[in-house]
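Please review this one:
***
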Amino acid sequence: MLSPTVISGYQGLIFDMDGTLIDTMPAHEQAWVETGEYFGYPLNGELMYQLSGATTYIIAEAIMRDGGMPLHLLEQVVQKKRELGVQRVLQSAVLLPAFEIVRYFNGKIPMALGTGAHRSMTEILIEKFELAGYFSAVVTSDDVTNHKPAADTFLRCAELLGVAPCDCLVFEDGDFGITASHVGGMDVFDVRDNRLLKAER
């Protein structure tokens, strides 16, 4: 992880949720497989990793196409996956090392949560891990029109924090989120390989 000195140079910190702050990905993968079993189609949950940061609908459409599932079932599939996802996440999700940064800078630098998850799942996880007191702003897929890799999620976070985008550091684990950060003019720390990726100024 980055040293506190480097992080202290930013005026706002923005964290992705799934795969960055909370390890929910195995639970979501299992929920996709179980959703496929429920409808009688072989859905490959691993495909979601390629679309990390995208909305459930975008991921669902890709997984359904791959599994030969008719898209007129999209809404039903999303609802069943969300139902199963909540169950699996509550059973197995744990905080990831990036939370130590949140804990360390709590009260020192304003922080926001910017996620591609929908509002109800986000609130469930915030309650489960008692995160509400750490974040001045929470932006979900329900709060923006254009989702990652568009910059809207992170730009809204910066706006709510009252910090210029160029003074924010984003923590991400997905290519969509990294692209979104740079489109928004923000530096990003890739938690997958501990790299600080600077935005073009």
Observations:
- Strands lie at 12-15, 22-23, 94-95, 111-114, 137-139, 168-172, 187-190, 195-197.
- The first strand starts at residue 12 and ends at 15.
- The chain has a mean pLDDT of 95.
